[in-house]
Amino acid sequence: MATLATIFCPEGGHFALALACALAFMQGILPLIGLRRAESPLITLARPLALSQCLALLFAWACLIIASLGDDFSLKLIAETSAINKPWAYKIAGLWGNHEGSLLLWVTLLSLWCAGLALLPAPTTARPEALPPRLRARILALLGLVGAGFSLFCLTASNPFLRLWPVPADGMGMNPLLQDPGLAVHPPLLYSGYVGFAVPFAFAISALLEGKADALWARYMRPWVISAWALLTLGITLGSWWSYSVLGWGGYWFWDPVENAALIPWLTGTALLHSVLVVEKRSLLQGWCLLLAIATFAFSLSGTFLVRSGILNSVHAFANDPARGLFILGLLGLYGGGSLLLFAIRAPALPSPQTGFSPLSREGALLLNNILLCTLCAVVLTGTLYPPFMQLLFGRTLSVGKPFFDATTIPLTLPLLAIMGVSVALPWRQARTDKLLPRLAPALLVTAGNILPAFWLFPTPLAAFSALLALWVISAALCDLILRLRSLPVGDRKLHHLPRSLWAASLAHIGVGVTILGLCGMAGSQERLIEARPGTHTTLTGRDWELTALTAHHGPNYEAVEAHLTIRHHNAHGPILATLTPEIRLFPQQGQRTLHVAILHRPLEDLYAALGSVKEEHDPQGQSHYTAILRLHENPLASWIWLGGIIMALGSGLHLLPARRRLLRMKRQVQA
Amino acid sequence: MAASLPFTRRKAGRFWIILACLLCLGSAVGLVLNALSSTIVFFMAPSQVVAHPPAPAQTIRLGGMVVAGSLHTGKTANNTPESRFDVTDGQAAVTVQYRGILPDLFREGQSVVALGRYDGHDFTANEVLAKHDETYMPKEVADALQKSGRWDPRFGPPPDTASWNSMTTPPPAPQNKQGAAE
């Protein structure tokens, strides 16, 4: 029985992967030929091909998961990353924590997006805004071409189904740092965001091929941009939370090349999200929007793959293989360079806008937002690429860290926040100053009223100023919601009657404000490092932290030491606030230790404790004492950082729900 | 309607766009250049630090191998752990002082990168980094070892702890330190 699974699963999965690759090539080529020759049978093939490719890849995953759960160490991937005593959930989640598995995940997620496109209902009289079949076929074909390249790469250069002979008795085990629930969900989320930007990319290429990027095109594309953006936002948020709660250094963002690789497409994606609006409402900026769609996908690709190929040296890069890097550079050159070439040839032929462009208008503010976001992106890109280039060209080893990024990104983010507050109050086309000021007045008043408290509460003037701008963004978004509510007819004044797009935009802006407030709060975090025996008291920001005991326990594949901390209000006799139990885990198989931080999330601050190490000391009487090295943090507003990210992602996701107006229209049609 | 718009208005729109782009680009270039000149951190091997001591205010990354037997730990008056250890590239050694928890993978005889300042005698670290993977040597340390002629990657993996111990120079004698301070 076991032998049957051993024989069948890896080979079946391998075959399914090869089949998916072939199907992707067909999906990429046949519909395009059909569209060229106007042969509808070939065009209609796009949907079944996309669905069957997706099924083949899901089957490959099922095979890989069964093999991993069955400890089939004849597979190289499983032998290198798994072990018999690994908890079963991580036998599955560990599959995408390495190069081969993550690439398979990438290709599978792309096919899932394709399947999503293929399964959408065709336009009917009730839903005239659904994607027309010809456009859908073209987009599926373009996505098929992208998928074909990467599944070929997966099959030839980084095959997860490679066998190993002789078969080892046990696997080498996974990096214990990756044994964490956050990291089990982080790559799929982040990758689905990265991959999701392939859909706007395909829309852009299709627009260039057709020579038409009009308002309708932007409207078809917008939901795909929003969903990819929301997933990428969630992925980044989760990654940041993971580094805060697992790495145990007390930080949330390290400006590591891998983190920047996710931030760069997020910045251009945010710009794209806003410029699509301008194309949809005003038919302006088409060329720019196309360029952003191409750039975002190119950055997503380089983010995923350059990092994995080890070109950017970093803590995260667990695969250092230049041969793969070359293949990936080739693919990047093909997709990125090819589409830029297409853009250069076809973009000048796009119909140019005939309307004016007033700086004091919604589109003017959105354009400024785009310029600032792209400048931010360029700055982050410079900081990320400067060290490897200096190393390559001049042989000088240097590093660019938080000081550089703080000095460059903060001055660009502050005007961005200021514009965010104004832009929601601006109408399209041309704003009138006399109407604008009353709309902004409540938010201005709220912000001005909080100047003194902000400078009192926040540790530095910069943090206080940024927090005020965040407050400005939040209050402007809320104020806009209220004003829009009051503009509805009296009988209809209900919050859920406001347009979904308004809710999405307001919540996304509020999310940004909440995150910025969290960042400002974290600027005032307090930290203490202590070496303590059980019974030691320490005071940190008016609270008493006592180490009550040190205990040991066994996990499935590790040994752990726990420190029990009791936190009391005021002093050692105050009422108990919380108990925290940070621990150290020792994984004997890898000879590696991991920290398990204990965090108490409170609305206004996080209490955070990390156990650094435990020492045994003998006193002259021959008795042994245990001493723990502890790091205690008090992080004001820390959880707001991730709360803001969740608000941004879920809020913008509201946009994907069917709009109320559309529902009403449908109801009317049903009644008629 | 759209076609009848005065040409000047379109032109004015263009003007604003170009002005905003130029302003943004200019400030970004200024910010980046300013930040690059003041916040960049160079990597130095102990022999480079001894031969060309950096300015006392300049933050550098010091990388090399931790000399076996050189780690001394203690704690300060307010219970903060404190440690001293020597870092070497096989040609010179620098004593590093650090207040804080050493990373999990910090080991004597293994590679380490310390971030901090050098005052001519000691290196005061704000941060000590060891890589997550025990078999992995930071690229900068590997390069420094290659430059100092202690290891050639063509002849296999980096030297292990035992052989490294025999290669490391003894803890720097006082006259060495004076030489470094000059």
UniProtKB/TrEMBL annotation, chain B:
Entries under SUPFAM superfamilies matching the protein: Heme chaperone CcmE
Species for this entry: Bombella favorum
Record key words, sorted: Cell membrane, Cytochrome c-type biogenesis, Heme, Iron, Membrane, Metal-binding, Signal-anchor, Transmembrane, Transmembrane helix
Extracellular side: 36-182
Family according to the record: Belongs to the CcmE/CycJ family.
Cell membrane keyword on record: yes
Location in the cell: Cell membrane; Membrane
Binding residues for heme: 132, 136
Membrane topology: Single-pass type II membrane protein
Positions on the Cytoplasmic side per record topology: 1-14
Main subcellular localisation: membrane
Protein name: Cytochrome c-type biogenesis protein CcmE
Signal sequence bounds: none
Biological function: Heme chaperone required for the biogenesis of c-type cytochromes. Transiently binds heme delivered by CcmC and transfers the heme to apo-cytochromes in a process facilitated by CcmF and CcmH.
The organism's place on the tree of life at top rank: Bacteria
Region (Disordered) residue spans: 144-182
InterPro entries cross-referenced by the UniProt entry: CcmE, CcmE-like_sf, NA-bd_OB-fold
